[in-house]
Amino acid sequence: MRLQYIGTGAAEGFPGMFCRCKACERARKTGGHNLKTRSCAIVNDKILIDLSPDLYAQSLSLGLELGKVRDLVVTHTHKDHLDSFSLELRAKEGAVKQNYEEERENQLSVYGSSFVQAIIQKALNEEPGAKASRIRYLPVEAGKWFQVGESSFCPLKANHKKNELCYIYAVTDGVSNLLYANDTGTLSEETLKMIESLGLVFHAVSMDCARGILQGDGHMGIRENLELKKRLEQMKCTGMETRYYLNHLSHMSGIIHDDLQTIMGDHGFTVAYDGMIVNI
Ligand SMILES: [Zn+2]
Ligand SMILES: [Zn+2]
Ligand SMILES: [Zn+2]
């Protein structure tokens, strides 16, 4: 499985769009991996996990062929993860021409909770030229695997937003296994038990680290990351070959990418950066 991190920053981006805090000024000055656009990722160059408001610019800088993407798996509906304007464009008559194909194939399948369905409906309602047939909504449920091409996804309840069912995902192609865990704070016992019951050993675990050195809340910080790593090891869901990644960094943590890599490198974590490709 090939996972590419498209964006690795939290909602404001890093540096924050309008922010002049110390962390943002340092990120601007240092550049490189310290600059982070809003989070989303792509599996095997064709299955998107989330649709960030930066996706158009990200696709140009990373050379992503979004016209070939037919599937979008959504974690939750915060605007940094599901950009409804992009959905409007995907559905708009004349905006997406794929003349070599039947119109019925000119469709994006979107997987997520009923909250995701509501955002799709809103996008279709707001764009007068939208063709509803171009976006197919597929409901997903915690613990129930669904197939997308050669990959299977299992939604697991995140601990993120009080008024919405948010998901993280286990992903497998039968050979390699990934746990993609953002946005979320410390996982509930129910979710941990569900992860254990999957019977998978993850080759890669990607964790939310928006809180950095601060106490976790609806996002994890390094304390929660270390606890989750330990718990996964205890449950034998990870092994010697498991690689750990940190994602969704926020300027509010007060530390930049380079700082986090220095702190967490010794604990076996790699801080993900925009465009980073992980062969799992
Ligand atoms: Zn987010
Ligand atoms: Zn800032
Ligand atoms: Zn969020």
Question: Which short descriptors sum up this protein?
Answer:
280 residues; seven-stranded mixed β-sheet; Metallo-beta-lactamase, Chain A; alpha/beta; binds zinc ion; 25% strand
Beta-strand level of the residues, as a percent range? 25-35%
Looking at CATH, the homologous superfamily is Ribonuclease Z/Hydroxyacylglutathione hydrolase-like
The main pleated sheet reads as:
7 strands, mixed
Mean pLDDT rating = 96
Radius of gyration: 18 Å
> What would you say the CATH architecture is?
4-Layer Sandwich
CATH fold-level assignment: Metallo-beta-lactamase, Chain A
Strand order of the largest sheet: 6-5-4-3-2-1-14
The DSSP helix count reads 7
* Number of E-state strands: 14
Descriptive overview:
Helix 3 packs across helix 4 (114-126). The chain is of the alpha/beta class and 280 residues long. The protein has one domain: Ribonuclease Z/Hydroxyacylglutathione hydrolase-like (Metallo-beta-lactamase, Chain A, 4-Layer Sandwich), CATH 3.60.15. The strands form two sheets. It has a seven-stranded mixed beta sheet. It has a seven-stranded mixed beta sheet with strand order 7-8-9-10-11-12-13. It has helices at 22-30, 55-62, 84-91, 114-126, 189-197, 222-234, 257-265, and strands spanning 2-7, 40-43, 47-49, 71-73, 108-112, 135-139, 146-148, 151-157, 167-172, 177-181, 202-208, 238-247, 269-271, 277-279. The chain contains seven helices and 14 strands. Bound molecules: zinc ion (3 copies). Residues 76, 78, 160, 183 line the site of one zinc ion.
